[in-house]
Design brief:
2 copies of one chain form a homodimer. Chain A has 204 residues and is an all-alpha fold. Chain A folds into 2 domains: 52 residues, Arc Repressor Mutant, subunit A, CATH 1.10.10; 148 residues, Orthogonal Bundle (Tetracycline Repressor, domain 2). Helix content of chain A is 77%, strand content 0%. Chain A has 9 helices and no strands. In chain A, helix 1 packs across helix 4 and helix 6 crosses helix 7. Chain A binds a DNA duplex (30 and 30 nucleotides) through helix 1 and helix 3.
Chain lengths: 204, 204
DNA sequence: TAAAAAAGTTGAAGTCATTCATCTTTATAG
DNA sequence: CTATAAAGATGAATGACTTCAACTTTTTTA
């Protein structure tokens, strides 16, 4: 498996992704041209396209890394959520928010979101959708945990309610990345104001 | 004011927008080339750009028309909302959904949404954002009406709650336009399942 | 009405993502 | 080791949005 060809391939792919993350963060996704990435990775433009189908593909590889970390952080919260319903929900939401800008800039998030909406049927669009679905499921799982614990009314259906919570946090995150000047703290405060009253309403 | 030049300008702008709406609906936004619109409107490519800054600009003019109608429909509901909280909220939401595909196709909606996310600082992005804000305000207004009527708990803050409802219906609409095969009925059912339990919780 | 100014139109050129026929490099067979 | 086949790299060509310097048309001035 480790012939010369294999090694060279792996190395080229690594160099291209490395160049992309660097350039995207430095120059912005839009401003970074494929030719620039190719130059930095010391390959030709055509070669970039042998490894990634489109420019958006390269971005999506980064998004996937980021969201995997976010899901990890969520698992930690799920393992031992805070006692009260509001604190528990907000702990998960803030865990998401706090791990969202490790690899991606706001501009990169915007582009990824735009890609996912504009071309939902492409591999990229589907991939983004799946990541979203996993986050929504995790939110539903938290509601279930709280329900099993007896902290949430038994007559609440966790599926639709988890989806609603996720839709709200997702839309608020979208507003956050749309405004380069909005600090994370403002996002947290707004979502706090939306989520706490709701949490009290569903308490057992 | 009605010199020859003025008349010709108005006529050209009308022809371009007309050509755009026709072509976008017939061929799809992406597939319709500026050159095609120019040909149909009997002007040159450059002239199209004298009237609209970008291709997205032309689309946004259509979106604005559509949303104005949606807001009109919303006003009708606000004037005399159904008696129960759940019916009232869903009446407004469904009024929005039912008036959303008059001028725009799902593909056109996707593109407009993508534009608004990707370039929030541009005139187009801001324009889309403002339309969204007006819809969210209308939802908050409905909650206030229901509260004044005594149908909703007095201790609920209508602002954050209205925003949450809007975020959810907006995100669900986004899912709807992302799936060309999803019928309106499915969207309605899902949002119904999310909204009714919530409505009962906030009842006075 | 004729000349000058202002406004607007035009389409070829520029830019950048993406494709593809050709060429080079690596692996395999005899 | 040579020859053949397979895999992969290459960059010029393509296509679509957008720009801009030159050209027309309309309006104003005298």
């Amino acid at each position: 498996m480790a012939g010369l060809r294999e090694k060279q391939k792996a190395d080229r792919e690594r160099r291209i992704l490395q160049a992309a993350v660097t350039k995207f963060r430095a120059d912005g996704y839009r401003a970074a041209r494929i030719e620039d990435l190719a130059d930095m990775a010391e390959v030709s433009v055509g070669t970039v396209y042998n490894y990634y189908q489109t420019k958006g593909d390269i971005l999506m590889a980064t998004v996937a890394m980021e969201v995997e970390e976010v899901l990890e952080a969520g698992l930690t919260i799920l393992a031992d959520p805070p006692q009260t319903v509001d604190d528990a929900l907000l702990a998960l939401i803030f865990a998401y928010y706090d791990h969202s800008l490790e690899y991606l800039t706001k501009e990169m998030w915007r582009t990824a979101m735009a890609l996912a909406i504009e071309a939902p049927g492409t591999p990229n669009g589907r991939r983004y959708f799946e990541l979203d679905q996993r986050l929504a499921s995790q939110m539903t799982d938290l509601v279930k945990v709280l329900q099993n614990r007896g902290a949430v009314r038994q007559d609440l259906d966790p599926g639709p309610f988890g989806a609603l919570l996720f839709n709200n946090l997702n839309q608020m995150f979208q507003e956050f990345v749309k405004d380069d000047d909005m600090p994370l703290e403002v996002l947290r405060q707004r979502v706090d104001a939306q989520t706490r009253p709701l949490a009290r309403l569903i308490g057992a």
